[in-house]
Design goal:
The protein is of the alpha/beta class. It has 14 helices and 12 strands. Bound molecules: pyridoxal-5'-phosphate.
Length: 382
């Protein structure tokens, strides 16, 4: 029983990443230098988006997005109940209130019908999440947004490289947010980025990531200026040149890594179709799935089945995980907003059944087959 532990996700670092980082370390610019703009240009081109703004986390990208579209005190932002807390936290950073919408049980994506039910005169924006790597239903969301004059933010931290009706993630909302945390598709250690087709939104986010100052150190050096103005309150959310060089080296392999994730997911899909106790999430026919995560629901079973299954997988060296508890289960949300059970019944029910299984580009077929065998063995725990 000394088989290696298979984590649920893992970064891929190669010689070319090391070389890119080394070159920057020996150059004149360690932070905001030529690599930032170059990485932004390449990422925007990857998505087919007009503009990209690099920042130092996915959370910062979401915060920049909320600020740029004018989310503020008194506003409400609709977010799905099942996501990483940062999606909702970003609205709170700007003084707004996140309003949780329920999800679809077979995709865990935000349910457009439920969004419509949660709109009030205070609603300012909808923050959709491309859960596990599948784009949300942006046409349906856009229709609601247009009717009520709302902005749309895509939390695309799971979905770079995916498509919706042939259109690329990064172009499906007013602003799309990405993360370069090591467990995501590409990494800069920590990092993030926002894409938009709106030049004014991009400019607002560039200023916001740099304290609210409208020039950066490199721009002033080039123009021989010392003076600058801080016109609005911003943050230091800059991604540095070392990280952007790493990001570019990683980005050059992103397509092949998405394909590798999809191949593992396809292998899982075939195997799990034959297992009665397993129901994988569904990818809709009009979308592709970038598979940041591969998530199954356990079908049937008595109370606590998922927790028993999780424990057995971990015992046997499979890095299962659970993404995510409804955000409003967290004590901060309970204490601040008084949310209790019943707010989003589908999310609450499905949460008790979900398990995230390992998927990452360097995972081998025999790793995947070991996961499949261990998932098969879970039927005896029902
Ligand atoms: C990873 C992630 C974030 C936050 O990204 P960080 O880079 O860790 O700040 C936000 N939303 C979702 C859905 C994520 O998975």
């Amino acid at each position: 029983m000394s088989e290696k532990f298979i984590p649920y996700g893992r970064q891929t670092i190669a010689e070319e990443d090391l070389a890119a980082v080394r070159d920057v370390l020996l150059s004149d610019w360690l932070t905001t230098g030529p690599k930032v703009g170059a990485f932004e240009k390449e990422f925007a081109a990857f998505c087919g988006a007009g503009q990209a703004v690099a920042v130092n986390s996915g959370t910062a990208a979401l915060h920049c997005a909320m600020n740029a579209i004018g989310v503020g005190p008194g506003d409400e932002v609709i977010v799905p109940a099942i996501t990483f807390a940062a999606t909702a936290n970003a609205a709170i950073y700007e003084g707004a209130t996140p309003v949780f919408a329920d999800i679809e049980a077979d995709t865990l994506l935000i349910d457009p019908d439920n969004i419509a039910e949660r709109i009030t005169p205070k609603t300012k924006a909808i923050a959709a999440v491309d859960y596990a790597g599948q784009p949300a239903d942006y046409d349906a969301i856009q229709e609601i947004a247009a009717t009520h004059g709302l902005r749309i933010i895509a939390d695309a931290c799971h979905s770079p490289g995916a498509t919706y009706k042939g259109r690329s993630v990064g172009t499906l909302a007013d602003i799309s947010a990405f993360s370069f945390h090591p467990v995501k598709h590409i990494t800069t250690g920590e990092g993030g980025l926002a894409t938009t087709d709106d030049g004014a939104l991009a400019e607002t986010m560039r200023r916001f990531r740099n304290h609210g100052i409208d020039t950066d150190h490199k721009m002033r050096a080039e123009r021989g200026l010392f003076a600058y103005d801080m016109a609005v309150l911003g943050y230091n959310y800059r991604l540095n040149d070392i990280q952007c060089a790493l990001g570019m080296a990683q980005l050059s392999r992103l397509r092949q890594w998405v394909a590798a994730r999809q191949a593992i997911a396809a292998r899982y899909d075939v195997a799990f179709a034959a297992m009665e106790h397993v129901a994988p999430l569904v990818t809709r026919a009009d979308r592709t799935n970038a598979h940041h995560l591969y998530v199954i629901r356990l079908a049937g079973g008595s109370e606590g089945y998922r927790d028993r299954a999780f424990a057995q997988l971990r015992d046997r060296g499979i890095g299962a995980n659970v993404h995510y508890a409804p955000v409003y289960y967290h004590s901060y949300y309970k204490n601040r907003f008084g949310h209790g059970p019943g707010l989003c019944p589908v999310a609450e029910e499905v949460y008790e059944t979900i398990l995230t299984l390992p998927v990452y580009p360097t995972m081998t077929e025999s790793d995947a087959d070991r996961v499949i065998a261990e998932v098969d063995a879970l039927s005896s725990l029902a």
